[in-house]
């Protein structure tokens, strides 16, 4: 793991000190090297993962998110080549540094064993995204999006800081392994345990974000560059789910059953309402952003259930959604770079111009709606099944959320690929090899996730 941190730190240095002629190629090479090194270390050797957990803090919850982060960094660099061609090299160098800094902070977040280091690295990931939105955003509204981003971040982070200080006073330490022995016994009979519970989890609810705390996300997605949207959808939203899973066990013996019922109901209802809101969106990027809110609300509902199987379903849905949502933003960016608009009424008929692009849209939309055998279907099925164990009425509500997700995913494909093309868009550039590779490397891991359970079943 030290090699991974050293390599990611090397990526930071290359982005500032590297030669102007080779900085892009070297950054992509080092990013791919980090990803391949993660695959070698975290393969299928359970003993290696267990030993890494006791020394650094990685386990079966954080390892998939680390690999996802390493996989996406070279893809964000590839996606940014077209956008940054209009800026000078100093701006490009700063942009690469910020993306590399996000990767370095994610490593610290997913591998920290102390809650204070987790909090610092967690908040550090927000600074580069804020700079990317405010500096490289395409419209003047990027400043309003930055204000929303800061406001909601402070709304969640300050109560969490108060919670950290309170836990440190009672336990004398913020070291994760100590919590299993002392945390529950200290807080289970305390009158203020529910307050600490709320302060601890509100930062992650805002970060995911769950419906009701989501207003910053569509604005941030619409104003961010393609790399910012990819990182927000694929990794940074997953920090909220990771924090919920990591800290939920510390309150497992505290009796919050009625509060959990309320939160599960709120998350599942928010997932359904978000699907309905997607029907009212005219901006393609905003529609994809609201679909992320709906999926992450369902993930939060599975996490608040607290069952082992529901947590596994939430992890599957988080990883698959990270790949699918990032791929959808890349596809939307391809259309925006050729038509200079994201309005669904204007972006249409691309099947007649770039026929093979319709195939990528079909696969991405099918994966987003949870069509079997894509991993989204497996994650949603596990979560809905566990919701039925709690209350069978949740099955109908979550099923309605899945149905609305299927409808707006099919609408995205139908509106962008079908209908008569507008004459102004008839002379557009073909998709080049870099853009085809970008979409392929988003969808290729999904097929690996499909084949892995099948191979295990055959071997069994």
From TrEMBL:
<dbReference type="Pfam" id="PF00361">
    <property type="entry name" value="Proton_antipo_M"/>
</dbReference>
<feature type="transmembrane region" description="Helical">
    <location>
        <begin position="149"/>
        <end position="176"/>
    </location>
</feature>
<dbReference type="Pfam" id="PF01059">
    <property type="entry name" value="Oxidored_q5_N"/>
</dbReference>
<dbReference type="InterPro" id="IPR001750">
    <property type="entry name" value="ND/Mrp_TM"/>
</dbReference>
<keyword id="KW-1133">Transmembrane helix</keyword>
<feature type="transmembrane region" description="Helical">
    <location>
        <begin position="117"/>
        <end position="137"/>
    </location>
</feature>
<feature type="transmembrane region" description="Helical">
    <location>
        <begin position="257"/>
        <end position="280"/>
    </location>
</feature>
<dbReference type="GO" id="GO:0048039">
    <property type="term" value="F:ubiquinone binding"/>
</dbReference>
<keyword id="KW-0813">Transport</keyword>
<dbReference type="GO" id="GO:0031966">
    <property type="term" value="C:mitochondrial membrane"/>
</dbReference>
<dbReference type="InterPro" id="IPR000260">
    <property type="entry name" value="NADH4_N"/>
</dbReference>
<feature type="transmembrane region" description="Helical">
    <location>
        <begin position="94"/>
        <end position="111"/>
    </location>
</feature>
<keyword id="KW-0830">Ubiquinone</keyword>
<feature type="transmembrane region" description="Helical">
    <location>
        <begin position="436"/>
        <end position="458"/>
    </location>
</feature>
<dbReference type="GO" id="GO:0042773">
    <property type="term" value="P:ATP synthesis coupled electron transport"/>
</dbReference>
<feature type="domain" description="NADH:quinone oxidoreductase/Mrp antiporter transmembrane">
    <location>
        <begin position="113"/>
        <end position="398"/>
    </location>
</feature>
<feature type="transmembrane region" description="Helical">
    <location>
        <begin position="389"/>
        <end position="415"/>
    </location>
</feature>
<keyword id="KW-0812">Transmembrane</keyword>
<keyword id="KW-0679">Respiratory chain</keyword>
<dbReference type="GO" id="GO:0008137">
    <property type="term" value="F:NADH dehydrogenase (ubiquinone) activity"/>
</dbReference>
<keyword id="KW-0472">Membrane</keyword>
<comment type="similarity">
    <text>Belongs to the complex I subunit 4 family.</text>
</comment>
<feature type="transmembrane region" description="Helical">
    <location>
        <begin position="287"/>
        <end position="307"/>
    </location>
</feature>
<keyword id="KW-1278">Translocase</keyword>
<keyword id="KW-0496">Mitochondrion</keyword>
<dbReference type="GO" id="GO:0015990">
    <property type="term" value="P:electron transport coupled proton transport"/>
</dbReference>
<feature type="transmembrane region" description="Helical">
    <location>
        <begin position="224"/>
        <end position="245"/>
    </location>
</feature>
<keyword id="KW-0249">Electron transport</keyword>
<dbReference type="InterPro" id="IPR003918">
    <property type="entry name" value="NADH_UbQ_OxRdtase"/>
</dbReference>
<keyword id="KW-0520">NAD</keyword>
<protein>
    <recommendedName>
        <fullName>NADH-ubiquinone oxidoreductase chain 4</fullName>
        <ecNumber>7.1.1.2</ecNumber>
    </recommendedName>
</protein>
<comment type="function">
    <text>Core subunit of the mitochondrial membrane respiratory chain NADH dehydrogenase (Complex I) which catalyzes electron transfer from NADH through the respiratory chain, using ubiquinone as an electron acceptor. Essential for the catalytic activity and assembly of complex I.</text>
</comment>
<feature type="transmembrane region" description="Helical">
    <location>
        <begin position="62"/>
        <end position="82"/>
    </location>
</feature>
<feature type="domain" description="NADH:ubiquinone oxidoreductase chain 4 N-terminal">
    <location>
        <begin position="1"/>
        <end position="109"/>
    </location>
</feature>
<feature type="transmembrane region" description="Helical">
    <location>
        <begin position="313"/>
        <end position="336"/>
    </location>
</feature>
<feature type="transmembrane region" description="Helical">
    <location>
        <begin position="348"/>
        <end position="369"/>
    </location>
</feature>
<feature type="transmembrane region" description="Helical">
    <location>
        <begin position="196"/>
        <end position="217"/>
    </location>
</feature>
<dbReference type="GO" id="GO:0003954">
    <property type="term" value="F:NADH dehydrogenase activity"/>
</dbReference>
